[in-house]
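Dear colleague,

Thank you for sharing your sequence with our group. We've completed the structure prediction you requested, and as agreed, I am returning the results in plain text so they can be pasted directly into your records. Please verify that the sequence below matches your submission; if there's any discrepancy, let me know and we will rerun it promptly.
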Amino acid sequence: MAKTLKLAALRAEVCRLNLELPKEGLVTWTSGNVSIRDPKTGWVVIKPSGVKFQDLTPANQVIVDLDGKVIEGTCAPSVDAPTHLYIYRKRPDVCGVVHTHSQYATAFAAVGKPIPIVLTAMADEFGGAIPCGPYSKIGGEEIGETIVKYLGSSPGILLKNHGVFTVGKTGEAALKAAVMVEDVARTVHHALLLGKPDIIPAAEVARAHKRYTEKYGQHGGAVKEVDKST
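Please find the predicted structure tokens below.
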């Protein structure tokens, strides 16, 4: 019963995150997908193939094992499932994967160029330039192999002539990275039209990224109220 309830919650979460993709302007029609891996069972919940976003429900999300066998679901899983599953098998630290063809980031992918590290937001979130892997054939594990090989420590990567893949410790983290990839791609695109932006030095990128990952957000423990009586 606990496992069923857990997977039901994951199905709802994967559905919710998939619905965020069109809201954030990262996808069109039926393109793009989100998956989450359950660390306890190793099973993966992923968007069904070719279903319009407005027709997605928790019930039609598909559960597969790491070999691609359908555990539960009436729909076929996303055709990108082999990519997601390869990443999960090779990166046990990853529990969320997102794929988009967001416009500005995919423009960089179309010309095979990484997004250069010219923004502090990139230093914070990605720890460097957003890499671009080489062209990889769709349909098997080749895309997953390329992602694992070229992703490095970044949560996001472009694939030449294809689009964007992001990863995270959670589905929410992977979605955040996908939103940030498109946001910085748009800004850098406009900056390149204006001139040649300066690359942030590696030491400063490392310092900013460390500070962001260790200090940004809530890390437990409320801030003590200042005693104004003294």
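Summary note from our side: The longest strand covers residues 163-168.

Kind regards,
the structure core
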